[in-house]
């Protein structure tokens, strides 16, 4: 992914993940691995943590301590 230097990387990654959820690439229950995503997007895990925190707060994902982050069963109606 090529990043726009005018926007924070975590926000651009968040947008990409939301697009994938909406397209059905990431179905409800799909596990979002910080390790895999950080390698895929070429960013450190701190950047991914910002992304997952924002996605969780917006209702796109849920996080279970010790298990990880997963696409929520019901998606928010607005961002």
Write structural notes for this entry.
With 79 residues, this protein is α+β, with helices and mostly antiparallel strands. The protein is built from three helices and three strands; from the N terminus they run H-E-H-H-E-E. It has a three-stranded antiparallel sheet with strand order 1-3-2. Strand 2 and strand 3 (68-71) form a beta hairpin. Helix 1 packs across helix 3 and helix 2 (34-41) crosses helix 3. 18% of the residues are buried. The model has no long low-confidence stretch (mean pLDDT 94).
Number of beta strands: 3
- Sheet with the most strands: spatial strand order: 1-3-2
Task: Count up the helices.
Answer: 3
> What structural class do you assign from the helix and strand content?
alpha+beta
Main sheet properties:
3 strands, antiparallel
What's the short version?
With 79 residues, the chain is an alpha+beta fold.
Which features does this protein show?
79 residues, 13% strand, 3 strands, 3 helices, globular, three-stranded antiparallel β-sheet, alpha+beta
SSE inventory with pairings:
Blueprint lengths: L8 H15 L7 E2 L1 H8 L3 H14 L2 E4 L3 E4 L8
Antiparallel strand pairs: 1-3, 2-3
Helix pairs in contact: 1-3, 2-3
